[in-house]
Amino acid sequence: MKLFGKNHIIILVITFVILFLMNYIGNDLPDKLQRALLTAFAGVVGLTIGLFILNKGRNDKNPPKNFD
To answer: Which of 34, 43, 50, 63 could form a disulfide with 19 if both were Cys (CB 3.0 to 4.6 A apart)?
Structure first.
């Protein structure tokens, strides 16, 4: 998957909405909006970093020998 392509943006939006709603609806504390936004944003950042690491090794011409 290409980073920041159409599919990546769609997955990021879906992840943000799911994490935000899970934290906003299930929280009774007074700062539930801030907690939900920070958790959703952290999930999107973590997903982007994970996809960057995954995509980085995809076109590697010299993989390590005996990796298995």
So the answer is: 43
Amino acid at 2: K
In tens, the pLDDT along 16-33 reads 999 999 999 988 889 999
Question: Burial letters for 15-31: b for 16+ Cβ neighbours within 10 Å, e otherwise?
Answer: bbeebbeebeeeeeeee
Tokens of 35: 């907690």
Picking from 38, 40, 9, the residue whose alpha carbon sits closest to that of residue 22 is 40
Model pTM? 0.75
Please report the pLDDT score of residue 42 as a whole number. Answer: 96
What is the chain's Cα-based Rg? 17
3-state helix, strand, coil in the chain (%, to 5): 65, 0, 35
